[in-house]
Amino acid sequence: MPTPQDPVQLDMLFRHAEYQSMLNRIVKLEQDVTELKKDMEELKSAVNEIRSNYATKADLEELRAELYKTLMMLTWRFIGFNSLLVAVVYYVARNVH
């Protein structure tokens, strides 16, 4: 039976300790990878939720057209109101003394 001082026995003990250390590191890495996969799935679902709320080019074009239409309507209302106001002031200035 080899003694603990035997180089072969010491080498086997060292290799066994190194093997155990490597196994522990592998187990830790597997746990970390499992957590990373779970986090990645959560991240993917969050990104998909964000993407589903994005405005598309068609949405932006529709909004642009609606904004243009509304601004044109308000511009003509403003012009009409000011024309009426000018007419009233002119009438008052000409006919009321």
UniProtKB/TrEMBL annotation:
Keywords: Coiled coil, Membrane, Transmembrane, Transmembrane helix. Residues 19-53 form a coiled coil. The chain crosses the membrane at residues 74-93. This is Archaellum component FlaC.
